[in-house]
Amino acid sequence: MSTGDSPSILKLSSDLDIHVRFANPPPDLRAAIMRTQSRLFSDSFQPLVLGRGSADTDQLKNAPALVSLELMLVSGRPARSIVEETNVAIEAKSEAYSLSLRDGNNSAILSANSTLGLFRGLATFEQLWYDYQGIKYTLNGDMKIDDEPAFPYRGFSFDTARNFYPVSDILRTLDAMSWVKLSVLYWHIIDSQSFPLEVKAFPELSEKGAYSANEIYTEDDVQLIVQYANERGIDVVMELDSPGHTTAIGAAHPEHIACASKSPWSKYASEPPAGQLRIASPTTLAFAKTFFASVASNLPGKMMSSGGDEVNLLCWEEDDETQADLAQRNITISDALNQFVETVQGVIAAHDKTPFIKSDMVLTHNVPVLNDTVVVVWQTSEDAAAVAERQLRFIHQPSNYFYLDCGAGDWLGNNIAGNSWCDPFKTWQRAYSFNPYANLTLEQRPLVLGGQMPLWSEQSSSENLDSIIWPRLAAAAEVFWTGATLPDGTSRLGKNATSGTRALARLNELRYRLVDRGVKAIALQPKWCVLRPGECDLDS
Amino acid sequence: MSTGDSPSILKLSSDLDIHVRFANPPPDLRAAIMRTQSRLFSDSFQPLVLGRGSADTDQLKNAPALVSLELMLVSGRPARSIVEETNVAIEAKSEAYSLSLRDGNNSAILSANSTLGLFRGLATFEQLWYDYQGIKYTLNGDMKIDDEPAFPYRGFSFDTARNFYPVSDILRTLDAMSWVKLSVLYWHIIDSQSFPLEVKAFPELSEKGAYSANEIYTEDDVQLIVQYANERGIDVVMELDSPGHTTAIGAAHPEHIACASKSPWSKYASEPPAGQLRIASPTTLAFAKTFFASVASNLPGKMMSSGGDEVNLLCWEEDDETQADLAQRNITISDALNQFVETVQGVIAAHDKTPFIKSDMVLTHNVPVLNDTVVVVWQTSEDAAAVAERQLRFIHQPSNYFYLDCGAGDWLGNNIAGNSWCDPFKTWQRAYSFNPYANLTLEQRPLVLGGQMPLWSEQSSSENLDSIIWPRLAAAAEVFWTGATLPDGTSRLGKNATSGTRALARLNELRYRLVDRGVKAIALQPKWCVLRPGECDLDS
Locate the Glycoside hydrolase family 20 catalytic domain: which residues (chains A, B) (predicted)? Predict the structure, then answer.
């Protein structure tokens, strides 16, 4: 991203037209344009300076007004919908765009190779403006941007199983994600605690495994959410975490679960309740195959995950049925695990999707995976290099940088003085300091598809969703859009103390814009500091 | 609190009458009864067990129904309003009540010595009930309670200066506070960052010192808030923090502020911006006198605070005006500080209010205070004993147990890896483990009036208010209502592992009730655990 030399004020004409300058614009682009048009005039965010918008009154009087925004598609290909562009393979996404605010005659030009690129440009365009008493204006009227992401995968991983979130929460989150140009919702939809996903092949799974009849994502809900996401340039990667984290399947199908709710849970699982799929059972393997196929066949995206984290071997060692299956088939538990992963990856691949898997499945259990598998590196950022050595593509989701849930103490009932396992709280600064290329060779860099911050919901729910995500998630969004360094090549939060100050100013602006749009992002500073960037720095 | 032997189911008749069985019930009691009556039937909270309310269907069929609640005043005195009872001296509050649910003829009896006691009983009564498909019922139909608080001062300290909160936030918080029987809102209304309080004698203070014209508590707002609080049994202690934490006064009256916004702020203040009242200046002293009197004269309560924390001596040492004043008057800065405190305490006392002061003013600066002063012990719980040695009454507000804002990293712009100064996050377990009598002799115990959890708002705002307070504040509310030990005399979270589990179950119930009533309290556990108390304990 590069901006013009000196800021110059430009108003938005109240008659602003957004023109599509190519044939047959798809309906979802038209809808996106209407949303932009609406937000341009409903946003009431004023600049974060002393006096807010009133500081610009004098300049506003004689400022020129932008009368149109012209959207151009420069590829020459017929326009495909945003949804179609979103659902191409992750490595083939076309998100670049150019925006020139005053390209003569008080018209702005937004051009891209795809409707998805235009959509990214609209997100930028609609956040350039301030409000003062109904007048919309920018201080960067000469802005010219050539913008594209450093990484195609920029995600948010969302656990809707430990506690349930209404559909409206997810839609609001998708909107906010699109404003910071995130490209993936990685949906950790089910877990051992509850099974809120309606599965066509096995409706009993959610009927018996959800917290209640009101806490289920029906097939229609999932379609709605995926469509809503895709229209906003966001791919949905559904994670059916397995073979661990599956106890809730046992509510309907106890025959598939080993060590179900076995006590003490801490011997058999990372968190309560214990329970894993009986991977050695041919019946369970058949169930898993149908289960994955049933979910995959309803998803348009090109990515899907079988999870695979935190498998507990003792659970299977002490399970009579599993031991009998192993003996009968004359295989080891390791063979069975390999076969399970091979099976579910096969289903995913058969549905024309790239399989995702959690890093411990590869690094701890040495399970062989398909060559194009994407590994979710989660335990620690140190694991990235080991995954890269195996020549596997991966995304960064390190608990020591990106976990949104850390730092609020233990949630077990009687572990009074306990910390959260991933203490301390991951500040925006911590997330923002992440280097996607740390410890990687130049040759390994293409293996990095991007990264994501996860919210695990043991201590979260609808009530604090916005405030635990925002604006921290935007810090990671900037890392994966802008890349390993700042645009000028310097490190993001290096020895240059002012880079943190500048990043904070951007994040403060985003936070106030989010609040203006109804997303309850937390304050990062007293407003006194927000209005005076740098003055709350240490030693200032 | 003692409950009956075995739980027995009791429904609430949809015709339930709440009768006042004494002459001339005050209007605020009548209003409280109407709120209770309304909530009894609008609450839709179901028991936190598997199957929720449906688990009780069979028992519900033939359960007896409560047809009336009879309110008795046993003092024999004429009934005073809740507001009047709330505004008596803290040591004279009458909050005890008795509640007998089925006192023959399907009538319940609630009796107390005061309308405030009746109000506390109503808070208990209205939270006994579950909902199942519109039927309201309790599992403790034989409940008999004799209940009273261990400490009269049970507070929440609220900073509305670092970031501003709309009046509606404060009213909602007061409602929730009353549900857990908190008795004091300690209102840290102004600070160095902003001055949101309209002061009759000096309207320019908020006109120039507030963040904006929309971020001011007008006199009417304050009256509304105090009245609303008092009607809910909550006293309001206004803190005019001084002589530190006053930079915002300088926006209108720069002549009263030493080292205003002096750089680097960290030499002259605990946080930006620097600035303290010129305590040696006779003009400033006169200003402070009028300022305190103007605010005090509009407040009905019997308590008021001059704060006094984090005074910075270098600020005055380097201030030419202060040095000139000291020289001219031939006094030391210590003399000036003593005189300042004597002056503002004098104003508070002259308005028939008990003065509150922060503990460092007494322990660090050895400022002499009035005998009946209440000290706010804040730096560490260890300071309580030192205050007690001086024979001063005090409240507990230790940063190492009760600060709601800790653990989210530093908010200074360039201190990238910094922690919050009071790391780590204070969990509900931490707050709940507090012993109000730790390190005190038996003789010193009467000096403890109670305690409070504060929210400092550097990183908080309207957006996360509910979720950062609730339900943690309820843990402290229980500590100061129930006392130093559990009702059976054992320690609250001692070696008995199940006490934590039982406390968590109570807190989970409260959290779900708060959410049901529209307060966005965070989840403490996955719902799986909530529905199975104890099953998520370690080693279970």
Answer: 151-483
